[in-house]
Q: What sequence folds into this?
């Protein structure tokens, strides 16, 4: 039996106490994909939402569709309580799509925990973030192939990753378990089985001084990380800054991404890091 889930999230900024603003979520869902709760651990202006998928994983034939709209002045932080798991398929692909639109002045933090691709999986993960002028976001994507710590290698299967910021940045790559040149070559994954990306994006060109500050804030912790030899930060577009890292396990890659996320938040928005509590449970 295949599962189909769809979740629509709409964030608006509304008047709050003492002349402040509050980001409010409205949602509709169909199937096993929903929001656990809206939390405000740092301020009413920043809405933290935890996305849950009760079946616990995505198998062949399953589809998950997340549609996000962040209105002017609203700020949403989205995460998950655990890893997204793509399980072995009997022939049909599993598909997850995220389509987000940010209005002028909107902010989005897309911070799900890692995606684990089990051996035998046939999966696609499509992410699309459309930013209007004045909108900004921080997002990450952490991909783990197999379960190395449990001795379960990614021996067969395919995973297609599509990450798009229309008009600014497009990443599209197919990871095939049979492609040893990609997975084991020093010019590819170099034998590592975890790939992480963290990006800061704006709906327009970033000032050069801001780009340099973001790059420095990524390069400094990367240089002192155990993953220094396999981490690097670049600006592929005048409105995008990207940190990439390869690792043998999820934990060191996640530590680096979280450290840079905290720095970027402070530099770009003047906000202290406020890690979702669910990351510690």
A:
């Amino acid at each position: 039996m295949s599962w189909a889930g769809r979740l629509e999230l709409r964030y608006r900024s509304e008047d709050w106490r003492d002349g402040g603003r509050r980001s409010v979520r409205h949602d509709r869902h169909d199937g096993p994909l929903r929001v656990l709760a809206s939390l405000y651990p740092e301020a009413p202006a920043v809405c933290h939402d935890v996305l849950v998928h009760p079946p616990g994983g995505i198998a062949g034939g399953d589809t998950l569709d997340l549609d996000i709209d962040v209105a002017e002045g609203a700020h949403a932080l989205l995460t998950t309580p655990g890893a997204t798991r793509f399980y072995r398929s009997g022939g049909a692909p599993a598909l997850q799509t995220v389509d987000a639109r940010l209005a002028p002045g909107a902010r989005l933090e897309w911070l799900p925990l890692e995606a684990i691709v089990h051996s035998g999986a046939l999966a696609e993960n499509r992410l699309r973030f459309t930013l209007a002028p004045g909108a900004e976001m921080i997002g990450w994507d952490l991909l783990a192939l197999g379960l190395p710590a449990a001795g379960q290698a990614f021996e067969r299967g395919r995973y297609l990753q599509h990450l798009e910021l229309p008009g600014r940045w497009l990443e599209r790559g197919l990871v095939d378990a049979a492609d040893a040149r990609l997975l084991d070559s020093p010019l590819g994954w170099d034998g590592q089985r975890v790939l992480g990306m963290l990006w800061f994006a704006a709906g327009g060109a970033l000032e050069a001084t801001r780009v340099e500050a973001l790059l420095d804030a990524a390069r400094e912790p990367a240089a002192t990380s155990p993953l220094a030899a396999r981490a690097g930060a670049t600006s592929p577009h005048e409105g995008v800054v990207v940190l990439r890292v390869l690792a043998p396990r999820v934990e060191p890659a996640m530590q680096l991404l979280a450290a840079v996320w905290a720095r970027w938040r402070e530099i770009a928005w003047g906000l202290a890091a406020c890690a979702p509590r669910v990351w510690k449970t």
